[in-house]
Design goal:
alpha+beta; single chain; 30% helix; 8-stranded antiparallel sheet; 5-stranded antiparallel sheet; Umud Fragment, subunit A
Length: 347
């Protein structure tokens, strides 16, 4: 059975392409479903609508016919000019000019308000077509489906292209090399922005891409496109003099206080008290470390770290495969989030 590899670099792009394809297909299907039906072709035998302007135009009168407009008797009172023409003469005293303000007052009182043209009542919402209201079942289903797809696309972009590359990433602990700090089956969150602000320090628990030598000595396959992640604790940073004895880890000739370890080491590193290379060192590792050994101590070179597991006697770490490149560090493990009974900060 083929398993989905969420750590594959191509997985986020494939998932995003699938979601975008579904969103585009859904949009096209919705548009096709909402397209109106084509109107029927107009026939020659269709009657003219009653409100057609052509019917309201009057036909021209035949020649010689009496003009109907001329014979029409006005229904209203005569025009002012005509009334003055046939009015009897009045006494000059009666023709006194009415004061302007009185005239305006009378006009204002006698004037009848213009009748407002009744506005067409808006069509009832219930009579509106279902597509216009957007309340029918099909449109509602499309809207819900679109919202789900949009939410999924945003989540993929945030998780795989923002949060995971730059902020946080979850890791699973498959071995007991960090007991008692981390147990088998723990799931931890590692911050990626911490080491963009500062360099790793002694005591930090870091997640990193395991180097080729570490995987080969552990019988694992090295694949730079799909790196294997380890989690260990930093015990040496550039410039530190590190020496390991049965008493513990000495950094710059000072014994580290390590309450988090399961037990003291049962080996010496990088040299034994007899001046020989530690028998724990893998093939070729001793020769790679030789230039950095001074007075039985390993001086960590620039651009490298020395990391160990808290379960010192059962950990496949730097005392076996040597130095870790600083660029291989993924982030700082800060919290256990699963199982629920082990939720807490990593110290």
């Amino acid at each position: 059975m083929t398993m989905i590899n969420f750590d594959d670099p191509g997985f986020p792009w494939a998932l995003l392409a699938i979601l975008l394809g579904l969103r585009l297909a859904s949009f096209v299907i919705e548009r096709l479903a909402a397209a109106p039906a084509a109107p029927p072709a107009a026939g020659d035998d269709l009657a003219v609508a009653p409100d057609d302007p052509a019917e309201r135009e009057e036909a021209p009168s035949p020649p010689g016919a009496p003009d109907a407009a001329a014979d029409a008797v006005p229904a209203g009172p005569p025009a002012p000019a005509m009334a003055e023409r046939f009015a009897p003469p009045r006494d000059p005293a009666e023709v006194a000019e009415v004061p302007r303000h009185v005239d305006e007052t009378l006009l204002a009182e006698d004037a009848e308000p213009a009748s407002a043209v009744p506005a067409e009542s808006a069509p009832d919402q219930a009579d509106a077509p279902a597509d216009a209201r957007g309340e029918d079942g099909s449109r509602g289903e499309f809207r819900l489906w679109h919202e789900l797809l949009d939410s999924a696309i945003i989540a993929v972009v945030l998780v795989f292209f923002l949060i995971r590359p730059f902020l946080l990433q979850a890791f699973y602990i498959p071995t007991g090399s960090m007991i008692p700090t981390l147990q088998i089956g723990d799931k931890v969150l590692a911050t990626k922005f911490t080491y963009r602000l500062r360099e790793p320090r002694v005591g930090d628990v870091v997640v990193f891409h395991a180097p080729r030598k570490a995987l080969e000595l552990n019988g694992q396959r090295y694949n730079p496109k799909q790196p294997t992640d380890y989690v260990k604790r930093v015990v040496g940073t550039p410039g530190d003099r590190v020496r390991i004895t049965y008493d513990g880890v000495y950094v710059n000739d000072t014994l580290l206080h390590e309450p988090y370890v399961a037990a003291r080491p049962d080996y010496e590193f990088p040299l034994t008290v007899m001046g020989d290379f530690s028998p724990r060192l893998g093939a070729g590792v001793a020769n790679a470390l030789h230039p950095y050994i001074n007075d039985h101590a390993l001086v960590v070179p620039e651009g490298y770290l020395l990391v160990l597991g808290d379960n010192r006697r059962e950990s496949h770490d730097g005392h076996v495969w040597g130095l870790l490149e600083r660029d291989a560090v993924v982030g700082k493990a800060v919290v256990i989030f699963l199982p629920l009974k082990r939720i807490g900060f990593i110290r």
